[in-house]
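In response to reviewer comment 3 from the previous cycle, which asked for concrete evidence that the modeling workflow produces usable outputs, we include below a single protein chain processed end to end. The sequence was submitted unchanged, and the resulting structure tokens are shown without manual editing.
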Amino acid sequence: MTRLTGRALRVTIFIGETDLWHHKPVYTEIVHRAHKAGLAGASVFRGIEGFGASSLIHTQRLLSLSEDLPVAIVMVDDEERIRGFLPQLDELVPEGLVILDDCEVIRYVGRERAK
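The workflow returned the following structure tokens.
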């Protein structure tokens, strides 16, 4: 089980819901690669409205634009692991925004697995 407390780095990736990597969602590929890389965790959040570098507003209120809502993928781990994972994001995120934030992990506890 991964232990994580104290100083950490958070990476947040903002992309579109319809962004694809080899015919599957980019966010799925990022989560699976993060898991394979042994990162502490990854979560995907679907936005209800937003815009990015293209300045086109995507919203669930307009049927014509509701199929490409904003998505944020958030991962937190120690700085070395996060920075080691960044080259994979260069490959997977040709359009979007990737940000890093220093953070402090107060509690990180998983569920006990049934034996």
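The longest strand covers residues 6-16. We consider this sufficient to address the reviewer's concern, and the full set will be provided in the supplementary archive.
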